[in-house]
Amino acid sequence: MQVLETIAEVRAARRGLTSLGLVPTMGFLHAGHLSLVERAKAECGAVAVSIFVNPTQFGPSEDLSRYPRDLPRDLAMLEAAGVELVFTPQPAEIYPLGFSTRVEVGAVAGPLEGASRPGHFAGVATVVAKLFNIVQPTRAYFGQKDAQQSVVIRRMTRDLDLPVEVVVAPTVREADGLALSSRNAYLTPEQRTAAPVLFRALSKAQASFTLGERNAETLRNAMRDVIANTPEAEVDYVSLADPDTMEELVLIDTRALASLAIRFGHTRLIDNLLLEETARL
Ligand code: PAF
Asked: How many domains does the chain have?
């Protein structure tokens, strides 16, 4: 496994590889990241993983400085997973002095995470566009847990004609339903016990949808009711949106993205489930 810190080294290592999968990460890897690596290994000739805690996607009051990091552990996990290239740039390699370009994706980046975290998606889109240009992967792998991020990245990739196939892989969960996230490491034992409420609320919406409920506000209220029973959980948003446009729905036709952001003290967790009518035989 080659561990590379500079763009020049990545470009040199990229030469001669016909099919390359990229898994962009901010490190502190968990089984969710490894599932993306595994999928990339199955679908691509070689796999690159980037580890970069991207400062431009954090707001001034967010957790950049305390974001969990453990590079030796991450590298050991990636070596064991059979990854060929790891790109671990310093911030100045990605954002050298004088850097002043931002990739702003339009409407899909506006609501939900975009509204709660102003500037977040411009930071994500800018760094992902740069990673695509540096690594030049044939495919890039993202997790469904960050559903809106995937929509933003797909939109950007299409709009800028970037020659990368964006693959979105299912969320990996703990046995109690909590979606794997590097931020779970911040939770106190009490908050960790309370945190599966996200999945319980989403599952409640899914169950009502399966029983035929199509009124979006009724489903949002069903999620809010579940969360209201957990005093540690403070709602940031509860959403039932069109999974392509991210616009809030009134009535659901065949598909909807149920998503939510919940605070446990200083820790903010997100999760989602796609509600979809299954074809009747
Ligand atoms: O999902 C993440 O970990 C980050 O947003 C990403 C895609 C690596 C960009 O920094």
From this structure: 2
